[in-house]
Amino acid sequence: MLDQTLAALALSGATTVVAAMATDAWEAARTGTARLLGRGEPPRQAAVENQLDADAELVVSESDGPGVRRELVPVWNRRLFALLREDPAVAGELRALLDEIRPALPQGAAGWVQHVTAHDRGTAFGVQGGDIHYHAGPATPVDGEATQADRG
Questions:
Q1: How far is CA 65 from CA 69, 77, 148, in A?
Q2: pLDDT digits over 63-84, tens only?
Q3: Cβ contact 79:37 at 8 Å
Q4: Is 124 within 8 Å of 116 (Cβ atoms)?
């Protein structure tokens, strides 16, 4: 359960940081993210700042800024999740940073966070900004066909 919580926080962080690129919230997002990922080591923090700056430049220079943002979210999600797994105590610092950044984001740029959980034999579906098409098989097995429970 802890990994799910950390994963959700990392995704929220990545979405917020990338959404802040090329906005008035960028300086706070850049500085705070570099501080967190730099872990108090100036060379490491400088490397994170350089990567953030390069990514922000891509958002500004590309004609498809939203597409670039979509591509960058998984990259920063992976980095933040690795940090949180290594040191879960950083979660409070990341939450505080996000609370600082979000109010400065343009309306609609704050991103989405969704939690979908299914237990036991349940099925859960979650969609944001799109459609879902689900086609269930027959409720009873066809002769010779294994049931869902038989398939595992």
A1: 6, 18, 43
A2: 777 888 999 999 999 999 999 9
A3: yes
A4: yes
Residue pair 78/6 in contact by the 8 Å Cβ criterion: no
For residue 17, the one-letter residue type is V
Separation of alpha carbons 51 and 144, rounded Å: 56
Residue of 55, 62, 50 whose CA lies nearest to 17: 55
Nearest to 20 by CA among 137, 81, 95, 111: 111
Q: Which residue has the tokens 């098989």?
A: 137
pLDDT < 50: residue spans in the chain: 1, 109-110, 129
CA–CA separation, 61 and 138 (whole Å): 51
Query: DSSP letter at 30?
Result: H
